[in-house]
Specification:
Layout (H helix, E strand, L loop, with lengths): L1 H12 L3 H4 L2 H33 L2 H5 L13 H7 L4 H29 L8 H9 L8 H10 L17 H13 L2 H9 L4 H12 L1 H17 L2 H6 L9 H10 L1 H11 L3 H4 L8 H35 L3
Helix pairs in contact: 3-17, 6-9, 6-12, 6-14, 9-17, 10-11, 12-17, 14-17, 15-17
């Protein structure tokens, strides 16, 4: 009897979890996989659609003939983009504002979030409420533009950086995360003679890396995708235009862009034939790929920090 039981247990251990499920559980699992696969397809297809249309024959893409498989693949669109005046400079400005802006935003959020947990900070609750109240009240676009001009940030690269450095939501996340760190770590540093800054840089920063990585990707994407500040502030500095603002101009003035591309390539697009001649759709698709691709490549490396960082930073205890 004991040998039969052992054989029965060994038989069940050798079976996969799917084999041990009942018929109803299998049906539910299959339905779940189908639903998730459908939503994954819905999320991924727009990006795939843009990519295949940017490398397919432009005349077919213009007529909406490219849906699932690229047709008559070519890369003339990207070759033309490289010769468009100001595009590379705009890309450099976007990279600079993303790197500098995200780094400063993360540092300020981490430092203020940590300081708001320190009992030694004078009137810390008052300052925390002072920062948090800006989440609920906004003066509007016109007062904001006037303030930026009075501060000398109009037609200035730092106009991209300083208005977005202090983000109350990120500060609250860091504050809550710091409160979840055992107080004994800071007490040990104080016993060894470490000051506030030493504790922050040597103890707190290494511990709160998950929330900092989460904030970093959020801040970087926000800086990379922003173009309204370029539209409102950089009125006399075309050399400070960002890639997103150039994309905005290309999408709204696609016909003018087509003429511009033809001129900058010595009319080679016209001579190449309909399959590779620039169209409004091909321009939009190609520029969109260039703008979205960096975010798509960076996001998977930071995704593992999202759940842990947001959950610990959003729930105290």
């Amino acid at each position: 009897m004991r040998e039969n039981s052992r054989a029965h247990i060994a038989h069940h251990r050798g079976r996969s979890p799917m084999d041990r499920q009942s018929v109803g559980d299998r049906v539910i699992s299959v339905i779940t996989y189908i639903v998730y696969a459908f939503f994954a397809f819905v999320c991924a297809y727009p990006f795939y659609y843009i990519i295949i249309n940017s490398i397919s024959a432009n005349n077919l893409s213009e007529r909406g003939k490219v849906l699932f498989i690229p047709k008559e693949i070519h890369f003339k669109n990207y070759e033309r983009m490289a010769s468009i005046p100001g595009l590379m400079d705009a890309a450099k400005i976007s990279v600079l504002r993303t790197l500098i802006g995200a780094a400063l935003t993360v540092f300020i959020a981490a430092f203020l979030g940590y300081m708001f947990t320190r009992d030694t900070l004078w009137k810390r609750k008052l300052w925390f409420r002072f920062v948090s109240v800006t989440m609920y009240f906004n003066a509007g676009v016109i007062p904001w533009v006037l303030s930026m001009r009075n501060l000398g940030l109009a037609n200035n690269f730092w106009g991209y950086i300083f208005p977005m450095v202090v983000q109350p939501f990120y500060i609250i996340l860091c504050k809550t995360y710091c409160e979840s760190v055992p107080r004994e770590l800071q007490d040990a540093g104080e016993i060894d003679g470490a000051g506030t800054l030493r504790i922050f840089f040597s103890i707190m920063l290494p511990v709160i890396k998950p929330i900092l990585a989460t904030i970093a990707i959020f801040a970087a994407v926000n800086q990379w995708n922003s173009f309204q500040d370029n539209l409102l502030l950089m009125t006399n500095r075309p050399d400070l235009n960002t890639l997103q603002y150039v994309l905005y101009q290309y999408i709204t003035q696609a016909n003018s862009l087509k003429a511009l591309v033809s001129n900058t390539t010595n009319a080679s697009a016209v001579m190449a034939g309909l399959a590779t001649a620039a169209t409004a759709t091909s321009i939009r698709m190609s520029v969109t790929v260039v703008v979205v691709l960096p975010v798509m490549l960076i996001y998977p490396f930071f995704q593992r920090f999202f759940t842990r960082g947001i959950m610990i930073g959003a729930v105290k205890g």
